[in-house]
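Shipment paperwork, digital attachment
Item: protein structure file
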Amino acid sequence: MAVDQEALLRGIADASLALLDIELNYAGAMDRCLGAVGSALSVDRVYVFEAHPNTAGTTCVSQRFEWSRDSIEPQIDNPELQDLPFEILGPWEATLRAGQHMAFVVADYPHKATRELLESQDIISILVLPIILHGELWGFIGFDDCTRPRRWRDAELAALSALGGATGAAIVRSRVHETVLEISAPLLQVWEGVIAVPLVGRLTPDRANRLIESVLGAIHGRDARDVLLDITGMSAIAPGELDMVLRTFRAARMLGARCALVGTSAVVAQAIVNADIDLASLSTHASLESGLAQILARRGLEVRRHA
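Attachment content:
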């Protein structure tokens, strides 16, 4: 079946645009990317596998993402596709590491174990493209046709190879972003039972979830009774980010800790007022020092302020 070239190019463009959001929502961006290209190609499944060593040091592959048509059984929860030894797939590893694609009708494939694995997923024809990061094989992106034998044209392969490269670049950006997230919201113990969390940059949903996990872990593991979220490094705050802050406050209160927002600038204060939220649930201070002073005063202690 010939694919409409305009639809293919539009699908590749939509997929590439989805990957631009990968720092904000890794899973969501990948799902939108696979859905866009799958619909454009009229295939039945599109998926991403990651190559990785298992505990014994054997190279395996595991399915990380998948898009499938409504009428096609998904395979994302298939346990056989997690920690699958690469060697079971015969020559796939060597071919993909060489940067080459594979496209074939499953019934004609000579490697029996691979053929039986693919047939168990109702795959009639398949295309597999490598995802290369820094010259090494990270994994692969695959396309299944479960309804008819399919022969891929050179123009389609060229366009999809470019998508494989874009996917690899997006994964690199995501890894860098993950590293930034790990260092951009450290937990600092500023007094006995008091932790401060400096926030720098925008508060995305993924980052908010990490923040909540870190704060709850500190409350439980460090016996923290007060948490100061320091937003001095945030030049602005959007309504969605305020909602995430309030989620953190509510989660901390469930474990018996108090939260306060410190380092609020005039711009942030105006944003809080404009958001029309319940200010009674939001304790704020102009600086970390004033927030800590209130905590100590509540404990009957006093902190000396700098002249």
